């Protein structure tokens, strides 16, 4: 533990997923811990990310479910969607979760400061509103990330746009929304708004969304967006946004391909940046990447020995469960009796498009680069439920196998409940399971997931993906 000369053994900046976990574990191990949060306890995941987003996904999916129910014989009278009622229920749940986070911190004996904290030097923290100053032995930077937008010089009219942060504050549904980007957030929101009946357009600078994912996932999601009614414009970026008078949609977006599209809401989902602006990293000597992310080693230690960082602010893998593990490992190692660090390989994740993406391990392209022999097993089919529906939805399941060791090194799924499936498959892949072991697992019938253990035929490529 720290020498008594310090006010706290640990000061955590940022009460999101990673910071809260670290603070609680360190306090439970006997450290004197404080945490500061400038917005709301819970961070991106609870307040303006994973949690409210997933509720919006559920809400938007009911429109389709109502239609499906009709085709399954239910006589359903649809009276429309009450967006304000939904938002108020969703916000109540977010408030409840934030309060639980606060209570858990208090129960663990953590001092909570609901204001912005900055580093004055490596051992001094300043609270910006109250002006209080504390000396601290260790610091954990867990400030997360923040949506990035081009400057007004780069994109005239950018002030008319919003980011994912503001989507959660909408008080009514737009008529026509245009979303820039082709990553996680752009694709998820495109499905959400289309599902809620909003005329939705996605503008992506590349040719197929979800760059970095397996090619078959990308093409399935790209086609899925169009099937869901999203207008997808590729190879284009916003050039200018101007206000138009007397129109139902008050903004006109000029694209780099010469097209002009109108919208009443515009979302920039073009990536996130580490939240290190004005944090005092310079003053404390903490080194950052050229994009402002905190540079850390495997133990989440920064260039300053008593300062650590976890979560999105380090730009390793921007996922809540990763931040939680990094925070837990830090607290156990520094304040507890277990020295460990989180391994960043084979992290399973989901994209909550409709249908969802579930993915773990290497893409086919990554495997072909890294391994001498790669076997691919894949299938595309209509799930059983859709046989009674007028629904073109197809499922895609793909296994990437090391041809020399028979080890399954990647699994990629586009399917209803793919997020749930990939959580389970992640265990097998993390354990190093072979294709023979997948095959030895008996199928659960009739399910979509049974295809994962019944794929017998190696896929032979006709043309290499670009
Ligand atoms: P992503 O990095 O996933 O996507 C950013 C998108 O913006 C890409 O399509 C990128 O194009 C495009 N882009 C970047 N710069 C520009 C530019 N200057 N002009 C036009 N387009 C541009 O970021 P997101 O904001 O969607 O998500 C951030 C992170 O948050 C994700 O990486 C993920 O880790 C996490 N997240 C996870 C979720 C989940 O687990 N379900 C949900 C939401 C977020 P290009 O492809 O060409 O680079």
Secondary structure: elements and pairs:
Elements: E1 8-13, H1 17-28, E2 33-36, H2 43-48, H3 50-71, H4 83-107, E3 111-113, E4 117-121, E5 124-127, E6 133-141, E7 145-147, H5 164-167, E8 176-180, H6 184-195, E9 199-203, H7 215-227, E10 231-233, E11 238-243, E12 251-255, E13 260-263, E14 265-268, E15 272-274, H8 281-284, E16 307-309, H9 320-335, E17 349-351, E18 356-361, H10 364-370, E19 374-381, E20 395-402, E21 408-415, H11 418-431, H12 435-440
Parallel strand pairs: 1-2, 1-6, 2-3, 6-16, 8-9, 8-14, 9-10
Antiparallel strand pairs: 4-5, 5-6, 7-15, 11-12, 12-13, 17-18, 18-21, 19-20, 20-21
EC number: 1.8.1.7
GO molecular function: flavin adenine dinucleotide binding; glutathione-disulfide reductase (NADPH) activity; NADP binding
Family: Belongs to the class-I pyridine nucleotide-disulfide oxidoreductase family.
Structure commentary:
The chain is globular and about 70 Å long. Helix 1 (17-28) runs parallel beside helix 9 (320-335), helix 3 (50-71) packs across helix 4 (83-107) and helix 3 (50-71) crosses helix 6 (184-195). It folds into 3 domains: 8-147 and 273-335, FAD/NAD(P)-binding domain; 158-270, 3-Layer(bba) Sandwich (FAD/NAD(P)-binding domain); 349-453, FAD/NAD-linked reductase, C-terminal dimerisation domain (Enolase-like, domain 1). It has 466 residues and is an alpha/beta fold. It contains 12 helices and 21 strands. The strands form 5 sheets. Strands 1, 2, 3, 4, 5, 6 and 16 form a 7-stranded mixed sheet that branches. A 5-stranded antiparallel sheet has the order 17-18-21-20-19, sandwiched between helices. Strands 10-9-8-14 form a 4-stranded parallel sheet, covered by helices on one side. The structure holds NADPH dihydro-nicotinamide-adenine-dinucleotide phosphate. The site of NADPH dihydro-nicotinamide-adenine-dinucleotide phosphate has 24 residues, from helix 6 and strand 17.
């Amino acid at each position: 533990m720290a020498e008594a000369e310090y006010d706290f053994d640990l000061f955590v900046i940022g009460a999101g997923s990673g910071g809260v976990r670290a603070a609680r574990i360190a306090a439970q191990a006997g450290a004197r811990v404080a945490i500061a949060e400038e917005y709301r306890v819970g961070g991106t995941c609870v307040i303006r990310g994973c949690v409210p987003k997933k509720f919006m996904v559920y809400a938007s999916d009911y429109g389709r479910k109502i239609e499906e129910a009709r085709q399954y014989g239910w006589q359903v009278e649809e009276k429309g969607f009450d967006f304000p009622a939904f938002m108020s229920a969703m916000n109540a749940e977010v408030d409840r979760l934030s309060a639980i986070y606060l209570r858990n911190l208090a129960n663990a004996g953590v001092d909570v400061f609901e204001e912005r904290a900055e580093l004055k030097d490596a051992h001094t923290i300043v609270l910006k509103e109250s002006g209080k100053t504390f000396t601290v032995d260790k610091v954990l930077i867990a400030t997360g990330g923040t949506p990035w937008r081009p400057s007004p010089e780069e994109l005239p009219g950018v002030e008319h746009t919003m980011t994912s942060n503001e989507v959660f504050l909408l008080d009514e549904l737009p008529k026509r929304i245009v979303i820039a980007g082709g990553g996680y957030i752009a694709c998820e929101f495109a499905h959400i708004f289309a599902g809620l009946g909003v005329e939705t357009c996605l503008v992506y600078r590349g040719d197929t969304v979800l760059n970095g994912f397996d090619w078959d996932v990308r093409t399935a999601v790209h086609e899925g967006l169009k099937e869901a009614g999203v207008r997808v414009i590729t190879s284009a970026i916003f050039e200018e946004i101007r206000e138009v008078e007397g129109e139902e949609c008050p903004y006109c977006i000029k694209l780099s391909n010469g097209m002009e599209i109108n919208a009443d809401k515009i979302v920039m989902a073009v990536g996130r940046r580490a939240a290190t602006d004005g944090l005092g990293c310079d003053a404390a000597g903490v080194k950052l990447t050229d994009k402002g992310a905190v540079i850390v080693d495997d133990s989440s230690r920064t260039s300053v020995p008593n300062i650590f960082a976890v979560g999105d602010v380090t730009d390793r893998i921007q996922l809540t469960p990763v931040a939680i593990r990094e925070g837990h490992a830090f607290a156990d190692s520094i304040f507890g009796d277990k020295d460990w660090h989180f391994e960043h390989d084979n992290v399973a994740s989901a994209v909550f498009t409709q249908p969802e993406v579930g993915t773990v391990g290497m893409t086919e392209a990554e495997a072909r680069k890294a391994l001498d022999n790669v076997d691919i097993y894949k299938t595309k089919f209509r799930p059983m439920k859709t046989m009674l529906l007028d629904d073109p939805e197809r499922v895609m399941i793909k296994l990437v196998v090391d041809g020399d060791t028979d080890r399954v090194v990647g699994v990629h799924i586009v399917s209803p409940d793919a997020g749930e499936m990939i959580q389970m498959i992640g265990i097998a892949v993390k354990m190093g399971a072979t294709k023979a072991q997948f095959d030895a697992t008996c199928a659960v019938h009739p399910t979509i997931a049974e295809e994962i253990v019944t794929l017998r035929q190696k896929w032979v490529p006709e043309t290499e993906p670009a």
